[in-house]
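Give me the fold.
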Amino acid sequence: MKQETLTVQKYTYKWEESNFIIYLIPEKDNYTSFYIQKEDYGFISYEVSIDMDELGTSAEEFIKANIDAWVMDCELDIFKLEPIED
């Protein structure tokens, strides 16, 4: 078994009444994966992996440009796991 230590960047965004946490996890060849988690929920949703050299903007600006869609994806995943009952 091989163990590695990663440096993960974490950003927190307030969206409506909830906080969402965005994790940037480095991969090989300068790629970074973006994940989103609703605060106080255990589920973490994968969003995208991108070559940071080719991004053309900062990670913060990339997140801001995509946060609405990512929050909707996250909320949909949570709904699938915890459907609202009538």
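The chain has a mean pLDDT of 90.
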